[in-house]
Amino acid sequence: MPIMENENVSRAEEIKIQANEAFKAHKYGQAIDLYTHAIELNSQNAVYWANRAFAHTKLEEYGSAIQDATKAIEVDPRYSKGYYRRGAAYLAMGKFKEALKDFQQVKKICPNDPDATKKLKECEKAVMKLKFEEAISVPESERHSVADSIDYRSIGTSPRSSFMPTQVGIAAVAVAFVAALAMILGAAAATKVAAVVVVVLGTWWWGGSAEVEPQYSGAKIEGDVVTLDFVKKMMEDFKNQKCLHKRYAFQIVLQMREMLQVQPSLVDINVPDGSHFTVCGDVHGQFYDLLNIFELNGLPSEENPYLFNGDFVDRGSFSVEVILTLFALKCMCPSAIYLARGNHESKSMNKIYGFEGEVKSKLSEAFVELFAEVFCYLPLAHVINQKVFVVHGGLFSVDGVKLSDIKAIDRFCEPPEEGLMCELLWSDPQPFPGRGPSKRGVGLCFGADVTKNFLQDNNLDLIVRSHEVKDEGYEIEHDGKLITVFSAPNYCDQMGNKGAYIRFEAPDLKPNIVTFAAVPHPDVKPMAYANNFLRMFQ
C-alpha cells in the first residue's frame, strides 16, 4: 500500500473516532460532517457509510440514510450493518416490505444473532398486519365518515352511553316494539302504544345523557360553546395528567371537523396595522413546552392570534393533550388560532410514530379514524397580509406555481407521494441553487433561486416553514427570504436544541424571533406509544 494511501486510511480512522464521539453527544450534524471527511479519505470502508447512515436516520433524513447504507452494501455485501441501517430507514418511512427484505438478509448473514432474529420477527408481523389491513380495507368511494356514527351527547352516562346516534337507537327500539305489538294486538293498537313508548324512550335517553358520570371531576363544556374557562380548566387537568371525558373530546373534534371543512386549502390571514401575529413550528406532542409558549407569549385570542404550522402530534408522548388543546382553542375563537397540516398529520406517520397508539390508549379506537379524517381537512398553507407565505415543508419540483394553484388543491385525502401537496408537506431548503433529491426520501430539496422565483411570481416577501429541527430553534436561509421555525425544544428528549416562535408586527411584518429552552415534563419517554418495532431502534 502506498505511503500516502496508508496515511489516508489511518487519518480516516482517527476522524471516525471523532465522529463517533459527536454521535454519542447527539451532535448528529457534526457527526455527518466528520464521517463525510473520513469517507473522502477512504471510501472503501463500509463502516463509515453505515455510521453516516445512522446519523442521517437520527436527523430523520431517511432518503440519505438509504443511499449511504446502500453504498455500504456495495462496498461490502457481507456487512450486515449495511442491511440493518437500510432496513431501519425503510421502516421509519413506513416501507415495511422493503425493510423485511433487508432484515431477512441480516438474518442470513448472522443466523445466530438473537437481535437480528427478534427484529426480523417483528418486521414479519408488521408486514402481515399491513397485508391484513389492505385485505379488509374499504374502497375510498364506499367509505362513510366515522363522524356519522357518533353522537357525543349520548356519551357519558353508563350503561346508556353509545356512539350510536340517538335517533337511530330510538328508531330501532321503536321498530322492534311495534313489530311485537302488531303480532299481539294488531297494527292499529300497536301504533298508538308505540307512539307513547317513543316519547318515553326519547325523554329517558336525552335526559339520562344530559350529564356525564357523577364521578368525573374534569373540565366540562356547558352546552355547545367551548369557553375560555373550559380551555383553561382542561389545560390544567392535562398538566396534572388527568384525562378529558370522551364526550367533550368528541365534541371538540367534531366541531373542528365542521369548521375546517369549509376552509380553503390556502388561507389568507389579515393582521391589522398596529397588531401582531405569532407563528409556531412543530410541537410534536411536547405539551409542556406548548404550555411554556403560552406562558411566554400569552394564550391565543383575537388580540393575540397564532398560527401553528403543522406536526402537532407524534414522537412526543403528550400528543393527545396537544391536539385537543389546539382544537379547543380554535373552537373557542376561530380567529385566535390557525392550524396548518404537517407531514405527520397523516395515517401512515401516526401509525408508526406514536399518535395512533396514544389515541387508542387515552381515548378509543373511534378517535383514531376521526382524527385521521379531520387531519385531511387541515389547510395546507397560509398567507399573512399578502406578503408572508407560511407552509410546513417547502416549495415545488416545477417553476411557476401560483397561490391560486395551491388554493385549488383537493386536500381532502391522505398525502400523496408526489405532486404539489406532497411537496408542500415534505420539501426542504438546500444551500446551493436549483433542486436536488430529498434527504428524507419524499419531496425534494430546493435552493435560493427557487425561493426567489416563487416569491417574485406571487408578489410575496418571505417564506416561513418548519419541518426541521434547528439547534437555535430557527434558521434564516436563502438570502434572508426563508426562515425555518421549530417549536419543540430538546426534541425527543435528546437533541438539545432550543425552540422558537416568530412574532410579526403589522404593517411592516418584520420577523421578531423568540427562542426558548425545554421545560421539565412527567417521566413518560418520547415514542412511548410508537410502533413496537420502531421503538426497538431508538
TrEMBL record:
Pfam families with a match to the protein in the record: Metallophos (PF00149), PPP5 (PF08321), TPR_1 (PF00515), TPR_8 (PF13181)
* Protein biosynthesis among keywords: no
Query: Superkingdom, according to UniProt?
Result: Eukaryota
Using the UniProt record, name the top-level EC class of this enzyme in a single word.
hydrolase
Q: Sorted alphabetically, which InterPro entries does this protein's record hold? A: Calcineurin-like_PHP, Metallo-depent_PP-like, PP5_C, PPP_dom, PPP_phosphatase, Ser/Thr-sp_prot-phosphatase, TPR-like_helical_dom_sf, TPR_rpt
Name the catalytic site residues: H344 (proton donor/acceptor)
What are the alphabetically sorted keywords of the record? Cytoplasm, Endoplasmic reticulum, Hydrolase, Manganese, Membrane, Metal-binding, Nucleus, Protein phosphatase, Repeat, TPR repeat, Transmembrane, Transmembrane helix
Q: Which GO terms describe its molecular function?
A: metal ion binding; protein serine/threonine phosphatase activity
Per its UniProt record, the required cofactor names are: Mn(2+)
EC number in record? 3.1.3.16
TM segment ranges: 168-190
Q: How does it sit in the membrane?
A: Multi-pass membrane protein
Which SMART domains does the record associate with it? PP2Ac, TPR
Query: Which segments constitute the Serine/threonine specific protein phosphatases domain?
Result: 244-520
Query: What family name appears in the similarity comment?
Result: Belongs to the PPP phosphatase family. PP-5 (PP-T) subfamily.
Q: How does it assemble?
A: Interacts with PHYA and PHYB, mostly when they are phosphorylated and in Pfr forms.
Instruction: Tell me what this protein is called.
Output: Serine/threonine-protein phosphatase 5
The organism named in the record is Hibiscus trionum (Flower of an hour)
